[in-house]
Automatic annotation (TrEMBL), chain A:
Belongs to the binding-protein-dependent transport system permease family. This is ABC transporter permease. SUPFAM superfamilies: MetI-like. Keywords: Cell membrane, Membrane, Transmembrane, Transmembrane helix, Transport. PROSITE patterns: ABC_TM1.
Length: 271, 331
């Protein structure tokens, strides 16, 4: 697979998820929450493209609104992680040595609390919800941003233009904003895309376990969970949301890979 | 991430300077475990309302709540409670559940056994997939077969382990009836049944992790292939695979090892979901049951065990890493 192709495929798949979510705000084929016992467990028909579930709800409409939940969780979780992790990483790379060491040690400690575990802990204490899932995934993702940002910062700080800026008496703030941040933004963007994929998977797993989005709000993970008891009767109910999750994750991963090649010239030369 | 810097091909396993580096890692591990235990304890202590009330439910009389608080020592200062809990944990006593009134420790050990079998088998599946496929994808990266393996691993990464589990159950348990769809038989009771029950959960966990690992193995082998020493080996007349096995794999192992450690942590937590899919009596299902029953002391104990396990795995990776790559001893 050529690199541009993976970027293109990523853009198309992510575009599809974002487009579906946006369209769901103004139109869905049916009311995704409408329970209708007369149309329970229908296979795909002209009226119900992906059929209906055990309560007679339209699977396609739920899938569309579910895309919204997925993106919402992803945006907030990755937003938290990037906004906290990136400045911490820059600070660790630019600040005093002990400060950098301290930040990275705390970082390693946070790594010992994976998203799923954090979400279950938060759920145990405050009750599970989309909010606890987003916070848990966000906090658990902070270390990856801090690491990437620190590595990038250290690289930028060793360049001659930073040396020149320091010799010219520029303040640390000025260097951070003028040189470091613009130069590591590509890395942060790549990390965001990859983290988004991980967040989609984590949200699905949490909803599957009952620690994510609460009913009746449609969520891909919960659609999967609800399908499990009917697996022998109707595997379609599991395959449709499952494929949606896989395509979304694939899209964000491919997008991340494609962006990485754009922003990391070192890799381009080597290929 | 791999810095792409030059590597020392013939580094010694244990040379000068490894002892202080490892000692430093041990200190870091101990401090991390200590801080993590405070975090876990504090997390449960900030609970709105009190654990006894939570465990007994809203209908409990104030006298009963008070009696339960005294019985479990919840009326003592937080520091005393923490020290008491940690003191117990260090001797294997995780306390008595507020809900079931049974000792948590023995149950924890039983459940951990199931989870470790699952994680171990999952890791084995992942390695058996990733090592050959990743190497093939790297060595043939300009050919269709290499590209196909890369594309396949990309798709594999995108499939949630529990979805893989659901699909595998559908095929091998429901349709073909070859393997059980869930449940657990202890290996001492019936080894054959135990193995049959372990296959699908291990595959669900391992297939997806194998796909992730394949990509890292591919990158690591690609990096090594570009090294001068490998080019020298090839120019001496060694064919690609023997050259790689003799000169490249140990160097490729260094970055792969780090990922393997991180993955082991992912597997431990991923097991929580897989245990739910396959109804396995592991640590994960114990955790979910305890959360559902609002059994906070049990939740606290399980979370601590999982977090310490992750920290310990990372410690082992760091130590191995230090031994494999002599340059790291200096840092």
């Amino acid at each position: 697979m050529t690199r541009n192709l993976s970027l293109l495929a990523g853009v198309v798949l992510v575009g599809l998820v974002v487009g579906t979510a946006l369209v769901s705000f103004v139109w869905t084929p049916h009311d995704p929450l409408l329970v209708d016992a007369s149309v329970r467990l229908l296979g795909p028909t002209g009226d119900f493209v992906f059929g209906t579930d055990k309560l007679g709800r339209d699977v396609a409409s739920q899938l569309m609104v579910g895309a919204r939940t997925t993106l919402y969780v992803g945006v907030v979780a990755v937003g938290i992680a990037a906004l906290v992790g990136t400045p911490l990483g820059i600070l660790a790379g630019m600040g005093a040595r002990w400060l950098g060491e301290l930040i990275m040690r705390v970082n390693d400690l946070v790594l010992a609390f994976p998203a799923l575990l954090l979400a279950i802990m938060l759920g145990a204490v405050y009750g599970a919800s989309t909010l606890t899932a987003m916070i848990a995934i966000g906090v658990a993702t902070v270390p990856s941003f801090a690491r990437i940002a620190r590595a990038g910062t250290l690289q930028v700080m060793s360049t001659e233009y930073v040396l020149a800026a320091r010799a010219g008496g520029r303040s640390r703030w000025w260097i951070a904003l003028r040189h470091v941040l613009p130069n590591i933004s590509g890395l942060v963007l790549v990390q965001s895309s990859v983290s988004f994929a991980i967040a989609v998977l984590a949200e699905a797993a949490l909803s599957f376990l009952g620690f994510g989005t609460a009913p009746p709000t449609p969520s891909w993970g919960r659609m999967l969970q609800e399908s499990q008891e009917l697996l022998a009767v109707d595997p379609r109910l599991a395959l449709v949301p499952g494929a949606a999750i896989a395509l979304a994750v694939l899209g964000f991963n491919l997008l991340g890979d494609g962006l990485r090649d754009r922003f990391d010239p070192r890799l381009e030369v080597r290929r | 991430m791999n810095s792409g810097a030059e590597r020392l091909p013939g580094g010694r396993w244990l040379g000068d300077g490894w002892a202080p580096a490892i000692l430093r890692r041990i200190v870091i591990l101990l401090v991390s475990v200590f801080v993590a235990s405070i975090v876990v304890f504090a997390f449960m202590a900030v609970l709105p309302g009190d654990p006894a009330q939570v465990a007994l439910g809203v209908n409990a009389t104030p006298e009963l709540v008070e009696r339960t608080r005294a019985e479990f020592g919840l009326d003592r200062p937080l520091i005393t409670q923490y020290l008491d809990w940690m003191g117990g944990v260090l001797t294997g006593d995780f306390g008595t559940s507020y809900v079931t009134r049974e000792a948590i420790g023995p149950q924890l050990v039983d459940r951990l056994g199931v989870t470790l079998w699952l994680v171990g088998a999952g890791m084995l599946v992942a390695l058996l997939i990733a090592m050959p496929l990743g190497t093939i994808a790297a060595v043939r990266h300009r050919r269709p077969s290499g590209t196909a393996v890369s594309a396949l691993s990309q798709v594999g990464v995108a499939i949630p382990a529990f979805l893989a589990g659901i699909i595998l159950v559908q095929i091998f348990a429901v349709r073909l009836g070859w393997l059980p769809s869930g449940g657990w038989t202890p290996p001492v009771r019936d080894p054959v049944e135990w193995l049959r029950g372990l296959i699908l959960p291990a595959l669900s966990l391992g297939l997806v992790q194998g796909a992730v690992l394949t990509r890292y193995v591919r990158t690591a082998v690609l990096d090594v292939q570009r090294e001068d020493y490998l080019r020298t080996a090839r120019s001496k007349g060694l064919r690609p695979y023997p050259a790689l096995v003799r000169h490249g794999l140990r160097n490729a192992a260094v970055p792969v090892l780090t990922v393997l450690g991180l993955q082991l942590a992912t597997l431990l937590v991923g097991a929580v979901v897989i245990e739910r899919v396959f109804v396995l009596p592991g640590l994960g299902s114990m955790l979910l049951d305890a959360v559902a029953a609002r059994d906070l002391l049990t939740v606290q104990g399980i979370v601590l065990v999982l977090v310490v396990a992750v920290l310990f795995v990372n410690f082992c990776v760091d130590v191995l890493y230090t031994m494999l790559d002599p340059r790291l001893r200096r840092s």
